[in-house]
């Protein structure tokens, strides 16, 4: 914490930023970063940069479902605020991550007032996802290439493309109907399993096992699992445990969907 | 197929995989190609090491560390935090086949008759489970290798210190 105090600017340099507003802004940015797939080290760094700019010392407690911040004005130690906020639903969005990181650097470099930061952050929250069909196409090709990398034949790769494409389509549709996200995972892996399992039943291509194994990879919760390990390494144990359990549960849902399709197709010699 | 050609094939397929996952994670359009390049290079390093008979875990670790270190250099060039493209790049090496086999093993363990016939199922399932977990952890080490090696907190300060 010492390095922040030494670089903190004198009060006359900046437009005043009231503690309550700063705390709310910090929590807003922090929770959005958390659900977009940032690890705790990144969240802390980004928020600390802003807090230090307006002359606040910050303590942050991050859990997977909420975040607590307590800030203290270094010039007037009696001015202190503690706030808590729940997180919205988790969904990876690296576009937001990029823009928030750029914004936090700009706050210090361009000496932005708090109104301007709030306005820019509101715009960042509205960054759209990539178009639905681009995602489907990207995921289909990625799974087909993974199938070839796992030494499957071209026919297997085509089946993997079809299975991943349809499975992702089903997942998007189920999510649109506002079902529980885990139900969406089960439905998607079931669909993918049924389509990829056709390989096994009709013996298409040289290694049908590879199709089934690689076509569900688009569902793998890579971001939570890798973030879990990063948090463990950096010592943020509470979030590391929750991320691990969250990722593990998604894996379990994928397994449930796949075993359903395997049992239905009657593949015994898997 | 000659050795060079198989390396090229490996790198180009890994490129597509990394770009596909970058689209899924909503990586901004202007840095999609960075994810592809890093994914291709990392997977290529792993492929070459595997060809020379080095174990799967050391090979994956080298690939992931390459991605992590190159990610810091690229992040400075394109003004983007490195996780945005190192994460999809590392997904190219995700142990999908082993995770799948571990899962199938778990389904088999539920069948007592099958277990009595062939008790090696438990051993094999445990093997694939541990292998999957180790490979995942390896990928995470690769992504934060920059921060671990240089004892600096932000990628920007790491870059400034080296160059």
Task: Give the tags.
heterodimer; A: 270 residues; mainly alpha; 2 domains; three-stranded antiparallel β-sheet; 66% helix; 8% strand; disordered N terminus; B: 163 residues; 9 helices; elongated
Total of helices of chain A: 11
**Silhouette of chain B:** elongated
**How large a portion of the residues of chain B is in β-strands, by DSSP E?**
under 5%
First and last CA, distance of chain B: 40 Å
Q: Summarize the amount of helix of chain B as a percent range.
A: over 70%
Q: Average pLDDT across residues of chain A?
A: 86
Structural Rg of chain B: 18 Å
Please tally the β strands of chain A and state the result.
3
Tally of helical runs of chain B: 9
Describe this entry's structure for a reader.
The complex is a heterodimer of chains A (270) and B (163). Chain A has 270 residues and is mainly α. Chain A has 2 domains: 2-125, no CATH class; 132-265, no CATH class. Chain A is 66% helix and 8% strand. Chain A has helices at residues 2-6, 19-36, 40-53, 94-109, 114-125, 132-149, 154-176, 181-202, 208-215, 222-234, 237-265, and strands at 56-62, 66-73, 80-86. In chain A, helix 2 (19-36) packs parallel to helix 5 and helix 8 packs across helix 11 (237-265). Chain A is elongated. Chain A starts with a helix and ends in a 5-residue tail after the last helix. Mean pLDDT of chain A is 86; it is low at 1-13. In chain B, helix 2 packs antiparallel against helix 3 (56-78) and helix 3 (56-78) packs across helix 9. Chain B is elongated, with a radius of gyration of 18 Å. In chain B, 50% of the residues are buried. The mean pLDDT of chain B is 87. Classes of the chains: A mainly alpha (270), B mainly alpha (163). At the A-B interface, helix 3, helix 4, helix 6, helix 9 and helix 10 of A face helix 1, helix 4, helix 5 and helix 7 of B.
């Amino acid at each position: 914490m010492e390095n922040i105090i030494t670089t903190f600017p004198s009060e006359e340099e900046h437009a005043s930023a009231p503690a309550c507003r700063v705390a709310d802004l910090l929590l807003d940015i922090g929770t959005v970063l958390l659900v977009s797939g940032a690890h705790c080290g990144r969240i802390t760094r980004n928020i600390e940069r802003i807090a230090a700019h307006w002359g606040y010392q910050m303590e942050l407690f991050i859990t997977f479902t909420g975040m607590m911040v307590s800030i203290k004005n270094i010039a007037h130690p009696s001015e202190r605020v503690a706030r808590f906020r729940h997180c919205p639903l988790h969904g990876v969005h690296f576009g937001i991550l990029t823009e928030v990181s750029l914004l936090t650097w700009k706050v210090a470099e361009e000496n932005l007032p708090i109104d301007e930061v709030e306005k820019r952050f509101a715009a960042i929250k509205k960054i759209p996802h990539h178009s639905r069909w681009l995602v489907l196409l990207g995921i289909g090709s990625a799974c087909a290439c993974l199938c070839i990398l796992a030494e499957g034949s071209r026919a297997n790769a085509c089946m993997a493309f079809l299975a991943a494409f349809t499975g992702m389509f089903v997942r998007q549709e189920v999510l649109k109907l506002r079902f529980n996200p885990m139900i969406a995972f089960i439905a998607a892996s079931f669909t993918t399993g049924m389509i990829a399992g056709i390989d096994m039943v009709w013996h298409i291509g040289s290694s049908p096992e590879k199709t089934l194994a690689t076509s569900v990879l688009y569902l793998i919760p890579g971001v939570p699992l890798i973030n879990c390990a990063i948090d463990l390494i950096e010592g943020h144990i509470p979030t590391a445990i929750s991320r691990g359990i969250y990722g593990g549960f998604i894996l379990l849902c994928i397994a449930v969907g796949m075993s359903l399709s395997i049992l239905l197709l009657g593949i015994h010699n898997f | 197929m000659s050795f060079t050609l198989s390396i090229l094939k490996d790198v180009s397929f890994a490129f597509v995989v990394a770009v596909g996952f970058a689209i899924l994670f909503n990586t901004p359009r202007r840095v999609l190609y960075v994810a592809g390049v890093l994914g291709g290079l990392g997977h290529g390093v792993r492929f070459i090491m595997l060809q020379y008979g080095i174990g799967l875990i050391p090979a994956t670790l080298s690939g992931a560390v390459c991605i992590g270190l190159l990610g810091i250099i690229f992040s400075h060039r394109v003004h983007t935090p490195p996780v945005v493209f190192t994460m999809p790049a590392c997904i190219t090496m995700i142990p999908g086949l082993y995770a799948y086999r571990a899962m199938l093993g778990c389904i088999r363990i539920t069948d007592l008759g099958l277990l009595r016939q062939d008790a090696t199922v438990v051993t094999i399932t445990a093997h694939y489970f541990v292998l999957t977990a180790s490979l995942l952890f390896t990928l995470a080490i690769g992504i934060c290798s920059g921060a671990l090696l240089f004892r600096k907190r932000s990628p920007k300060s790491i870059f400034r210190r080296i160059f």
